[in-house]
Amino acid sequence: MADNGQCIQCGEALEDFFNFCPEYGRSVTQEGEMTEREIIEMYFYCGFTYSCILQLMSKYHNINMSLSTLKRRLQSFNLARSRDAIDVDQIRKAIRKEMDGPGCLFGYRFMWHSLRMGHGLTAPRDLVQRLMKDIDPDDCVDENEGCPLIVQSDCGTENGNIAAAQCYFRVDATDEYAGEKAHRYGESKRKQRIEAWWSCFKKSRSSWWINLFKDLMDSGQFEYGNVIHKECMWFCLSDIIQEDLNYTRALWNNHYIRSSRHETVPGRPDELYYLPECHDSEDQKQPVNAEKLNEVRLHAADPVN
Question: What is the pTM of this model?
Answer without folding.
Answer: 0.52
